[in-house]
Write a structure and sequence with these properties.
single chain, mainly alpha, elongated, 9 helices
Length: 223
């Protein structure tokens, strides 16, 4: 039983990483060059880095990466206006926070309710690490409780809190990227044609003069 829980030493871990990298490189080579391949490469590199991070580093890094991917998802869905997007996604903009991006992705129908819930739990875990200056890991009682409430990890309840967190993050990332791959921009509406209201003015001016015997008092606005 003890042997089944034994972790690989540093040398074995590096060897495993090299084998997995070669395997993933073969998968990437089968994808056409372009944004999709680069996106997959970023995710693979992210997963490799995530496994090497401390618990605090993993929590902060995971939230930041998911935050960035949600921003990409929203950009790909909203009207393709770079200037307006910059305003919206700026730090002080309405879509400048992880929380607002999670909520807006859900309200746009891009992500289901359970993904919305899990992302907010990841955000809460990030906040716990970010607001504590002393040492902290996933076994901290309040953080462990949040990790145990996650459902996207695919492991048994006996798994460690850190394993549940990291695996959930990858599960969520998979969903976000799948949706991202099939998401199209909303088409901007064409400018509304401003009608010529001169006929309406002439009729109003005519009625006004018939009633008052005077020239229409707003004539200067129309002629």
């Amino acid at each position: 039983m003890e042997n089944s829980k034994k972790k690989p030493d540093a040398k074995q871990f590096d060897l495993l990483q090299k084998i997995l990298k070669n395997h993933f490189d073969e998968i990437l080579a089968q994808l056409p060059e372009g944004a999709k391949r680069e996106s997959m490469r970023d995710i693979i590199n992210f997963r490799t880095s995530l496994s090497k991070e401390t618990d605090r580093g993993a929590a902060l890094m995971a939230a930041a990466f998911l935050d960035e991917r949600l921003m990409c998802l929203l950009r790909n869905r909203l009207v393709n206006d770079k200037k307006m997007s910059k305003v919206m996604f700026d730090f002080n903009g309405p879509l400048g926070t992880f929380s607002s991006r999670i909520n807006f992705c859900y309200l746009l129908g891009l992500l289901p309710k359970n993904v919305h819930r899990e992302l907010h739990i990841v955000r809460s875990i990030r906040n716990k690490f970010a607001h504590r200056a002393d040492f902290m890991d996933f076994e901290d009682p309040s953080t462990k409780s949040l990790c145990n409430s996650l459902i996207f990890h695919g492991v048994k309840p006996a798994a460690s809190a850190g394993s549940k967190f990291r695996r959930t993050v990858m599960g969520l990332l998979t969903v976000v990227e799948l949706v991202n791959g099939e998401t199209l921009h909303i088409v901007a509406r064409k400018d509304y044609p401003v009608p010529d209201r001169s006929e309406a003015y002439l009729r109003v001016a005519e009625i006004y003069k018939d009633v008052t015997g005077e020239e229409y008092f707003l004539k200067y606005e129309h002629e």
